[in-house]
Amino acid sequence: MLARRFVWSDREVQRLAGNFVAVADELHELRTGTTPEARFFQKVFAQKQKGHPGHQGVFVCTPSGRLLASCFTRDVADVKATLRVALARWESLDPTARDKATTLPAALAIADAPVDRVAHRYPADGLVLRIIGRDVAGMVVTERWSRSFVWFDADEVASMRPTPEIGGRVAVRRELVARLAALGFLDKGMVSGFTQAFADDDVETATLELETVARRGNIVDVELRGRTRTRAADGQPKYGIRERFEQTPTERGVDTQILGRAAFDLDAGRFVAFAAVAAGQRVGGARVGRGVDDWGPAGIAFSLRMGDGSPPERIPPEFTHRYPWLAGAARTP
Questions:
Q1: What gap in Å lies between CA 287 and CA 281, rounded to an integer?
Q2: Mean of the pLDDT values across residues 60-76?
Q3: Angstrom distance (rounded) from CA 177 to CA 207
Q4: Which of 67, 226, 296, 297 is deepest in the core (most CB within 10 A)?
């Protein structure tokens, strides 16, 4: 398991990777988007190795978009082999071929004019929540987990402003809590696969209240309490093997109770700390990783932490089309 878990911390992998420029990005936008980066990835992916399933994995290519090697694995030995093959193929190119391989085609060139991308609208003056989801059985938390992000812009955060008086309560607007429920509290199947967002109409309950419990100058401390409930009529049996099931779940959903604490700067109009847990039950199937014997109800939990503005958090979140204030940015339809 350790070999599969820590590929990129392996010293030999790091040494081999030093021959290349390593990049990573959010897959959905690359797979379906129309930006220069997406078109470049799609060209590389079309050359993928035989037996390489899906769009995930390691792709080693030249600046021109010529694929040198690829693999779909978390095994250290396989990644080393892929990097060695790619390096050998690069070194085998004659000078003319190398010149062509290092030239970015005009059709894939990134425009000089700035492009208004979703990533550029990262709400540094708002609130970004890092959400970690795990299956929970009694007091046992499973090893596998998923991570996602949910964004709120400055205006949305301003609407959450708590009262300065101790004991005062503020209800967060329903549509903002519904964003958490529909886009963040998802059963991803063994909490490592994919699933669809819930539709707005699938959100049956979405409440969150902020109660001021202390004040330190312009900083107020608040307690968070809330509930969410989602139900969709698409049970999502395990992707790709629907025909193997004699029956499928009739619905899917997640019920949670939210508890947490936060700190809000009244002068700056923003949160300076945010930590909460949303725990409850899941029911139904999931797009990947929920077998016929695991449709629940069963325990699931999510931790919510305020983001720190690091580069990985600036990658567009899932389901960007569900954010009204991201309309018009370069993204998938």
A1: 17
A2: 85
A3: 6
A4: 226
